[in-house]
Specification:
- There is one protein chain.
- The chain has two domains: about 280 residues, Alpha-Beta Barrel (TIM Barrel), CATH 3.20.20; about 130 residues, no CATH class.
- Helix content is about 40%, strand content about 10%.
- Helix 7 links the parallel strand 8 and strand 9.
- The C terminus is likely disordered.
- Bound molecules: iron/sulfur cluster (SF4).
- The site of iron/sulfur cluster (SF4) has 8 residues, from loops.
């Protein structure tokens, strides 16, 4: 495959910056902590190609140069527009060229940090060496001390991982699929344990050994919907990455079919599925929902319903027969109510030490979203109706454009299936939340 070196550095940035958009950064959406790049929002047209705004965890927005070192890749990942399947002109930087280009944009204050990725043009260690040389030039020749998010190539040796750890601010290896079984469906060349989990373990060990509260953190990305993996498969992997290895973030990129790849005809994953996974991630990581608590959110196939917010669904399941008393419920119960986040729950707990809470206005002043919470919260002058109608009203105020999944066979509903649209079983919270055929009409 021909690597095109004749274009100037800015033309390469235009191309290789565009090709890097399949990788997510570390930006966050204020409401759901969803990375905006995961939704492939168009780049701000006033910014040069390859430069993206990213909201960092501290809330500040920074401009990052997001670029691939090269889009030449020998690998055969069936979902990837950079895989060897795709016949198109490829580009590649030289080490000094990329380092110099970055510093030019940095000195003009066009960018404040770098996100550097690459296709695997030679071997994992071979291409990793190029990335490390680039970052080494920035750190040691140009004395750049800012943010560098460095992709570690799948299959990088422990020595390469250690060098990346010493130079990067943030490291990531794209896991892409939750298990070896799923990975095998889309790649004949990658081994899940050897190429992904072992380097991740090596990064984790370095973070542990360091013991200095180092700023280097590990994140990863999964492609959602390319290999028939369920949301529950993804959840199990996500729980391991956060719980066992202390990952900073896991990102979910909805699959998009790329021309000429084996998955060209495979349907695109709805954005809403990735959104539901971010909500699940948030419930697990920030709200502390356990695996047992989250189980009712999945249908029998292991998928989250697209048409319902999982927190609302779980609250309807957990609090179907009880009212959450604002003045006595524990913090852990309060934050499980839709419309009550950790900040509002903490304010409620503080406020009620001084006096009883007795109005929606008080709760709203503390950050509670009343229209979401009113079917669940109670206080002396207000008791929510323990009725299906109340929950139905709540749902109808928050319609989503997602299609309701097809109703499974009636027998599947007998055990309280969370994907059933029958709406006829009075005891099932899922049925209560869906409009009947007459109401829908
Ligand atoms: S190794 Fe990375 S760049 Fe290469 S085909 Fe696979 S996902 Fe694409």
């Amino acid at each position: 495959m021909l690597i095109q070196n004749s274009p100037d550095a800015y033309e390469k940035l235009r191309h290789l910056g565009g090709m890097a958009t399949d990788d997510v950064l570390a930006p966050t959406d204020i409401k759901f902590n969803v990375p905006r790049e995961a939704y492939s929002q168009p780049r701000n047209r006033t910014m040069p190609a390859g430069v993206y705004k990213a909201a960092m965890p501290n809330g500040k927005t920074v401009s990052l140069m997001r670029v691939m070192f090269t889009d030449v890749c020998k690998y055969d990942c069936a979902y990837c527009p950079n895989s060897h399947w795709v016949p198109r002109k490829r580009y590649g930087f030289k080490v000094d060229e990329l380092a110099k280009l970055f510093m030019e944009l940095y000195q003009r204050q066009t960018v404040a940090g770098l996100f550097l990725s690459s296709g695997i043009a030679s071997t994992p260690d071979g291409i990793m060496e190029k990335l490390l040389d680039t970052v080494d030039a920035l750190r040691n020749r140009y004395r750049f001390k800012g943010y560098i998010h460095l992709k570690v190539m799948p299959g990088t040796s422990p020595a390469g991982v250690e060098a990346a750890y010493r130079l990067g601010t943030r490291l990531s290896i794209n896991l892409e699929l939750p298990t070896q079984e799923h990975l095998a469906k889309v790649s004949t060349m990658k081994d899940f344990n050897k190429h992904m989990l072992e380097p991740m373990q090596a990064i984790h060990n370095l973070i542990q050994e360091d013991g200095k509260g180092t700023a280097v953190g590990q994140v990863t990305q999964l492609v959602v919907g390319a290999a028939e993996e369920s949301d529950q498969d993804i959840y199990h992997r996500m729980a391991q990455l956060y719980g066992q290895w202390g990952f900073k973030r896991v990102y979910y990129q909805p699959f998009r079919p790329a021309r000429y790849t084996p998955l060209e005809e495979h349907p695109a994953t709805p954005m809403l599925r990735a959104h539901r996974l971010y909500q699940l991630d948030w419930l697990s990581r920030i709200y502390g929902y356990t695996e047992t608590e989250l189980a009712p959110a999945f249908d029998q196939g292991g998928f989250l319903p697209l048409d319902l917010d999982p927190k609302l669904l779980l609250a309807a399941y957990a609090y179907r027969d009880e009212v959450v008393d604002v003045n006595h419920a524990e913090y852990q119960h309060l934050i499980r109510v839709p419309g009550v986040g950790p900040t509002a729950a903490k304010r409620i707990v503080e406020q009620r030490k001084r006096h009883s809470i007795n109005t929606w206005r008080d709760l709203q002043a503390m950050g509670v979203v009343a229209k979401r919470a009113r079917a669940f919260l109670g206080f002396p002058s207000y008791k929510p109706e323990k009725s299906a109608q109340m929950k139905l009203d709540l749902f109808q105020e928050h319609p989503t454009p997602a299609p309701v999944p097809a109703a499974p066979a009636a027998t599947a509903h007998a055990g309280g299936c969370s994907s059933c649209a029958t709406a006829a079983c009075g005891s099932c919270p899922i049925a209560m939340l869906r409009p009947t055929a007459a109401q829908a009409a």
